[in-house]
Each structure stands twice: as structure tokens, then as C-alpha cells.
Amino acid sequence: MFDSLKKIKELKELSQLVANQKIEIEKKGIRLVVNGKMEIEEIQLNPGLSKEEQEKVLKECFNEAMKKFQLDLIQKMSQMQ
Question: I want to staple 36 with a disulfide (CB 3.0 to 4.6 A). Which of 13, 18, 22, 43 is the partner?
Fold first, then answer.
């Protein structure tokens, strides 16, 4: 039972750690900041790019940020064991 409580406590701490984390991705003058709650905090577009190019790069930035969060979470969870 105490092991279960310890795991719950560790998971809560991990959740707080991840929630406070921020990832910033910048490509082709487009900047995206996403927090650990998967909320976009900031977007800066590059007016020098076409609308289609901005959409493409923004999507790439968002997908890269999500991958970084996933990898970081996996790494932190593996350290808990």
C-alpha cells in the first residue's frame, strides 16, 4: 500500500514538473512557445512568408514541441522506476 502511495506522490510531482515546463521552437522566423499543459503561450509569425508557408511552418513547430514534451515525459517516467 505504501508503494502505491509513493507512486501517486511521484506522479503528482512529475505532473507539476511537466506543467511548469515550456518549450520554444523557432523555424524560418516563426516562433512558438508551448507550456507543459499543452497550451500555446505565444506565437510570432513571419510576415515575409506566404500564408501557406506560415501555416506549414507553424504546424511543424507545434508537432516538434509535442514530440519534445513526449520524449521528456518518457525520460522522466523511466527515471522514476
Answer: 18
Please tell me the distance from the alpha carbon of residue 72 to that of residue 50, in angstroms, as a whole number.
33
Tell me the pTM.
0.76
**Rounded CA separation 44/66 (Å):** 18
DSSP assigned state of 33: E
Count, residues in the chain: 81
Range of the domain at 22: 2-80
CATH number at residue 20: 3.30.1310.10
**What would the 3-class secondary structure string for 14-26 be?**
HHHHHHCCEEEEE
Sign of the C-alpha dihedral, residues 58, 61, 65, 67? positive
Give pLDDT < 70 ranges for the chain: 1-2, 80-81
